[in-house]
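Holo prediction. Input below; ligand is adenosine-5'-triphosphate.
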Amino acid sequence: MSASQAAPARDRLRIAIQKNGRLAEPARNLLSACGLSWRESRDKLFCYGESLPVDLLLVRDDDIPGLIADGVCDLGIVGRNELDEQGAARVQRGLKPAFQALRGLGFGACRLMLAVPEEWDWQGPQQLAGTRIATSYPAILKDWLDARDIQAQVVELSGSVEIAPRLGTADLICDLVSSGGTLRANQLKPVETLLDSEAVLAGAVIAPDDARGALLAMLLRRLDGVVQVQDRKLLMFRAEPANVAALEKLLADAEPLVRLPADDGAPRLQTMCPGPLSWQRMEELERAGAQGLMVLSVERSLA
Ligand code: ATP
Ligand code: ZN
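Structure of the complex:
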């Protein structure tokens, strides 16, 4: 089916996620945290949504953008790298954009980078003229090279890109990097970042305007309520009024302190911190007069 054909009417939302691989488990966990649950079919390619009319399709990540473009799925959880690659490839083939990233999800972080043999003295992208670059991301790489007016040969490989320089099939590579361990093991060093990637929720450029539209809006709201609080911590403590100003200073990155209803003892205060609170920071607050410090994880919120 082509993207121009109208998708068949459906009243259930369909989300494609990776069947196996790095994004499979975090994607399922995130959707569970949004209140979705499924009855699993035996072949586990299709999971029927039980708590809401939202079904899962378990596929290879490479297939997710195409499933959205063809209207087979409404949403997908996929790396920005894969989505941008297939988006760029569509534009290069003269096709209209069909899918877009709706939300960053805060997991699956990696970078698409150029990496050269360790012995190269890297001086900048102009050095790439006339080289052969192995990659599984030919469309993003082509756009990047074109934007810099660099003439280099893109060697498309579907896997094991990092051994291409040693095999002599390319001079350098353009590949995903997270820790850099794979590069080091292959005597390569990263030199340029083409894309900062993470898992995203992807959807069609034109959102469904039937029952699925309302489901999609509800799911996005729940997702924001989970993703946006992921690293936040609720901090509670007691403090004598004379110490509050100093504590507020130490908590400049947090929301303003809220005073809770009085009981016996020093006033109780709470605030929301944007990131994790180290032991060192808690001890610093304690020295400034915070008593009975308690750090609570935030599971979800409704904005
Ligand atoms: P599939 O069988 O679904 O095609 P795959 O081998 O293409 O799986 P994975 O290796 O599971 O995919 O990677 C999925 C996504 O995880 C990548 O597209 C990327 O967004 C993200 N990712 C995070 N860190 C890395 C990394 N170090 N290497 C590769 N991908 C990473
Ligand atoms: Zn893949």
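Residues 60-62 surround zinc ion (ligand 2) (CB under 6 Å). That is the main takeaway for now.
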